Amino acid sequence: MPQTAEAVDTSRDTDISFALSSAWTTTVWNDPVNLMSYVAWVFRSYFGFDREEAQLRMLQVHNDGRAIVALGTREEMERHVEAMHDFGLWATLEREDR
Amino acid sequence: MRGFRAAGENLSAEFDRVEAALLSQLAGQVAALLRGAQADDAAPDPVIARLLPDAYTDDPEASAEFRRFTSADLTERKVRNALMIVASVESATTASESVEVLLDGVAAQAWLRALTDIRLVLAARLGIEEDDDEIRADEQALILGDVYDWLGWMQESLLSALDLDG
Fold first, then answer.
1. What is the rounded CA–CA span in Å between residue B74 and residue A78?
2. B129 to chain A: which residues are within 8 Å by CB?
3. Is residue B144 scored above 70 in pLDDT?
4. Residues B14-33: what's their mean pLDDT?
5. How many other CB atoms sit within 10 Å of the CB of residue B2?
6. B41-65: per-residue pLDDT in tens?
7. How far apart are the C-alpha atoms of B137 and B34, rounded to whole Å?
């Protein structure tokens, strides 16, 4: 069944390149200006986190100084960072630590 | 002023003339500041850096590139949000009594962002950079500090009014 084997190989290649290109994260940083309720609201309305998750990430930003809120390709993370800047939050993207 | 509360599909607050004029003036100033920065190719000043921060912590070149691709759009949206505030409170700036200001969903989204941007600009002017920073003690700073807190209260009331149906 060589055709099947070929098909598996192709999908494996795709997975590997996806994994490599996914290695970026979006970080939201604490700032003294934004209200905690606003940050939680942004996380809910933009990332679609439920109330609990949004609250948890917001507290992480507040207490730890930052939280990672998304993982994906560089292009996707740039879109998220731009959206965060649109909301007035301080966000950056970085290559994921390996 | 009465803070925001849900009014059917909309959100409603009451502003007197002085409050409406102050808010309108601040929003107009932020819009003008953003437009001025857009026209100016020089390195962004600290206030603009709060509105359009670096997208990369350790890569100035990538940050500059990101800014090149996104700042025109972001600036335009931020200007539009600020001007939404100006338009929403316009009738209240000339009224002799408190006037109800009604926001639909789209306007509320613009207000939340624009209030954030105004507070970011005030914070930069006041030197608020860390959570525990004290506001400067001179008279102008005390007034700006009150305005800053008032805008925060307004945003909080807008969020809790939105939250009831969220």
1. 13
2. 32
3. yes
4. 96
5. 13
6. 666 688 899 999 999 999 999 999 9
7. 28
- Pairing mode of beta strands A91-95, A66-72: unpaired
Is the Cα torsion angle A82, B110, A34, B22 positive or negative in sign? positive
| Mutation site for B-interface testing, chosen from A29, A62, A92 by largest number of B Cβ within 10 Å | A92
Point out the residue among B58, B117, B130 whose CB comes nearest to the CB of A32. B130
Say which amino acid occupies B39.
A
Residue (of A90, A56, A64) closest to B123 by Cα position: A90
Minimal CA separation from A95 to chain B, in Å: 10
Chain B hits for A44, CB-CB cut-off 8 Å, are 166
pLDDT in tens, B76-124: 999 999 999 999 999 999 988 899 999 999 999 999 999 999 999 999 9
The answer on pLDDT for A2 being more than 50 is no
Under CATH, to which class is A22-95 assigned?
alpha beta
Q: What's A59's DSSP letter?
A: H
CB contact under 8 A, A32 and B155: no
Query: Which residues of chain A lie closer than 8 angstroms to B163, CB-CB?
Result: 41
Q: Domain boundaries in chain A? A: 22-95
Closest by Cβ to A88, choosing from B58, B116, B128:
B116
Please report where in the chains the tokens 């996104």 appear, as a residue: B70
Q: Is the dihedral of CA B143, B2, B157, B89 positive or negative?
A: negative
- The helix (run of H) or strand (run of E) holding residue A66 is strand A66-72
Long-range Cβ contact pairs of A74-80 (< 8 A, separation 24 or more): A74/A21, A74/A24, A76/A24, A77/A24, A77/A25, A77/A26, A78/B55, A78/B66, A78/B70, A80/A26
Using pLDDT thresholds of 50, 70 and 90, give the confidence band for residue A13: very low
